[in-house]
Amino acid sequence: MSMQSIEELQAALAQQRYVADRGLATSLYLALKLGRPLLLEGEAGVGKTEVAKALAAALETELIRLQCYEGLDVAHAVYEWNYPRQLLEIRLMEAEGRVDREAAAHELFRPEFLIRRPLLQAIEHEGRPPVLLIDELDRADEEFEGYLLEMLSEFQITVPELGTIRAAAPPVVVLTSNRTRELHDALKRRCLFHWIDYPDHAKELAILQARAPEAPRRLAEQVAAFVQELRKVDLYKKTGISESLDWIAALVALDRQELDAETVDETLGLVLKNQEDVEAIRGERARGILNRALAGGVRSAG
Amino acid sequence: MLELVEIGRREDFYNTLRALLVQRVEDLALFDQAFRAFWRAPRGERTQVDLRALGEERKFGKPKVERESLRAEPALTGREGLPASETVEVRTYSAHESLRRKDFAKLSEEELQQARKLVEQLRWAPGFRRSRRWRAGIGRRPDLRRTLRAALRSHGETLAIPTRGRKLVSRPIVLLCDISGSMERYARMLLQFVHSISEGFHKVEAFVFATRLTRITLQLRKSRMDRALSVASLVPDWSGGTRIGDALRTFHLDWARRTLVGGPVVLLISDGWDRGDPQTLRREMARLQRSCHRLIWLNPLLGSPEYEPLTRACRRRCLMWTTFCRSTT
Q1: B103 near B303, Cβ under 8 Å?
Q2: DSSP labels for A208-263?
Q3: Separation in Å, CA of A101 to nearest CA in chain B
Q4: Which residues of chain B does A181 touch, with a Cβ-Cβ cutoff of 8 Å?
Q5: A41-77 pLDDT, tens per residue?
Q6: Are B74 and B214 in contact (CB under 8 A)?
Q7: Distance from the CA of A154 to the CA of which of A37, A83, B72, B233 falls in 20 to 30 A?
Q8: Which chain B positions have a beta carbon within 8 Å of A192's beta carbon?
Q9: Is A86 on the interface with B (CB under 8 A)?
Q10: What is the pTM of this model?
Q11: Which residues pair with B323 in a beta bridge?
Q12: To the nearest whole angstrom, how far is the Cα of B306 from the nearest Cα of chain A?
């Protein structure tokens, strides 16, 4: 499925229950049209990974995900030879007395001994170009970034024993970063960049309603207003959208129709993921925030 | 590329340009400003700050558009609840003064020069950490890749099993340096120390604080010390009072997630004269200690043998104490 306009893409994402503002939709649309990777940065839990999932679903294509971590190397990101199988094979060949070095190398490095990791999968993918999600790139080290740079500019991977594998149709690449460190400028130059901010009240409400349609509207409004107020407070870890979604799901499960001080105190652990933050907010301050949120709700309703 | 979006719609034009031109979130504000300047309704005196003028400046030097304010990155922008810097009288705590004879404060100009040279030569290694990355030839885990290669060379016979192990990497350093009134006499020397440390390692983050916290990592990358020392002029509360707890809290809220990665060693340089709330200080110190590999408190007052950590801030915790003065004077 190819997108002809920003509006079409926005609508397709909305169908996947992903609320993308115009800015994000524009960046995604351009990434698709220009065939450039899109780098998404933002605080944890603002929906960076979800973008890629929703995009893959909207484009009706496969999502290939590479979760980054420290020490991620070619063997886990791109390909690895299946050494145990190869060692077995070489023992067999030896037993049969047919180990000729040239031939053996040829036999042992056949594609069926190759373990394909996400990047190679994305390059070799047949049919509609997949969405390649390289998640939390800031967790990987700089060496890996350097490798990625090469791959993203050529969309080809060289396996010395097999030759160069080129992508028939380059994948749609989405990179995410939580900014625990600054990514290299050279990599950023290759990418389009979009910063996903915490949503405003209207967007948060739209997201809550799209993702938790079973929640009463009044509750969704109150949750959105409460979280908006909560983000104004200095916290070690601010509440992301994923937390507000968890929270509303929990409130629905508890069969709550509205927020009240008691419920907030009981379920605060879903909204704040840091013990110091929970302690600081629970009780008096939570009540204050709730009152402000409810007052704001009345104002906007009136 | 602009033909892909409708150029007539300003919002799309804006989003497109932003996605293409901006690569760092810090630059978003600058971009917005330039964008507004470009679209501003024409007025008589339009040549004052128009875009071409910005471009010219860029050619000959760094752009000046509000950038200055970003440079020292005051970590407190827009944050409420903390007081602005306050001026306090410089207290020398003269009761202790006579006891600290070999103090920077008492050094002659010549001795200061010497001390500075010594500090410049100072090198310090914060230790290593096992990274997750493999390296051939070390450690004890079998390296199947090379085992296979070797077997191929010996006609399929595995004669030896090469090994691999985890690589060691140098730990990053995070420096938090007190530059309040009571530390003023040491502050310049400390900055020299901070600068010489940061030259040896590439992963050094540096902050200074008195009542508020300021990041000076970028200034320290400048190669010349006197220029790096000009950070003093960018720091709003140079030689103000100290609120270690509040400064640490700001550090945790705004910077910890970006700087306390990879098992860092945190160096806190302060004399412990704190005017803030001891509760906050205790909480933030505990948090800091939990979130780094090692927390080292460098206290210049420890240089004198008679000094005892009697202030409430100092007494609060038992950390690893290290002397600074002793090593340099």
Answers
A1: yes
A2: HHHH-TTS-HHHHHHHHHHHHHHTTS--SS---HHHHHHHHHHHHHTT-SS--HHH
A3: 6
A4: 258, 261
A5: 999 899 999 999 999 999 999 999 999 998 898 899 9
A6: yes
A7: A83
A8: 19-20
A9: yes
A10: 0.75
A11: B299
A12: 38
